[in-house]
Amino acid sequence: MKIVVVIQARMGSTRLPGKVMLPLAGEPLLLRMVNRVRATRIPVSTLVATTTDPEDTDIRILCARHRIPCYSGDPFDLLDRHYRAALLYDADVVVKIPSDCPLIDPRIIEQVLAYFISNADRYDFVSNLHPPTWPDGNDVEVMGMRVLREAWKEATRTMEREHTTPFIWEQPERYRIGNVLWEAGLDYSMTHRWTIDYPEDYRFLRTVYDALYTEERPHFSLDDILHLLERQPWIGALNHRFAGVNWYRHHLHELRTIPPDRTRHADTSGSGINHPTTIYHEGIQ
Fold first, then answer.
1. SS3 call for 141
2. What is the pLDDT of residues 224-242, one digit of tens each?
3. Euclidean distance between CA atoms 75 and 285, whole angstroms
4. What angle do CA 123, 129, 131 make, to 5 degrees?
5. How far apart are CA 131 and CA 172, in angstroms?
6. Which end of the chain has fewer surrounding CB within 10 Å, N or C?
């Protein structure tokens, strides 16, 4: 069984252009993230799926320099890009991890993958997002190639093409949906933000890397980060006003399985939570 992890990445970002190439401990964010994914002890192939857009040339160069397989596809249809990348690399099982998770813990990837593998006859799709419990930025979604192919063929709504997997997990009557909860029994998904969309997110990530990254221990753990935030709570405060902000907020009227309390609107004014009228497509990576 060939397991392929697809990391979708692009340079274009409405709020933080070029975020995947921002330095963390001296190397591009995307490279740091790929290396954390590759630290997973379950054998997987890891590839970057970027776009054919010329501005993504730097991503292709980075991948070539570090011998990371790279596929270039549709800039806006992420479901198509994801499917074609998995098809090109002969995947049996496909793992979706977004490129804005540079703190993802390889042990969490292993947990979700192991659950999918050991329950292959029970579930078509397994993630740690329905419902989420880990800090935001540890997203793992696993599916068989058959399921991804069906989504690729049948999904028609823009939201389904842009965010890759809603066609699957929005149909629990059609697909058997499994979920892995954080064994700590906690839910930090709306209070701890370890992903990147805003400059404040980058300041948070950079500070965590500066504090914890070493050549001897490059893949510091979720617990290491939580202990750091307990000792120095000012670090968590750097981007706390965006905690709980995710793409769901723009599609609650379309989503059947996501309750309103699983998202928030971004505070773009610097104080409190508000409801901006500008629509950002943060799902496009």
1. strand
2. 999 999 999 999 999 999 9
3. 8
4. 90
5. 13
6. N
What is the C-alpha separation between 224 and 103, in angstroms, rounded?
A: 11
d(CA 44, CA 91): 10
**Tokens, residue 129:** 């997002």
What's the pLDDT tens digit per position in 42-63? 999 999 999 999 999 999 999 9
| Count of CA atoms in the C-beta half-sphere (13 A) of 272 | 3
Q: Tell me the sheet residues that pair with 47.
A: 6
Segment (H or E) for 135: none
Helix 29-38 to helix 57-65 angle (10° resolution) is: 50
Do 238 and 207 touch, CB atoms closer than 8 A?
yes
Structure tokens that stand for 145 in this block: 């190639």
CB 62 within 8 A of CB 55: no
> What distance in Å separates the CA atoms of residue 126 and residue 95, rounded to the nearest whole number?
10
Residues 136-191: tens digit of each pLDDT: 999 999 999 999 999 999 999 999 999 999 999 999 999 999 999 999 999 999 99
3-state secondary structure of 179: strand
Give the pLDDT of residue 273: 41
In the block, which residue shows the tokens 């401990």? 25
> Position 63: which residue type?
C
Cα separation, 122 vs 19, whole angstroms: 38
Given this model, what pLDDT does residue 276 score?
35
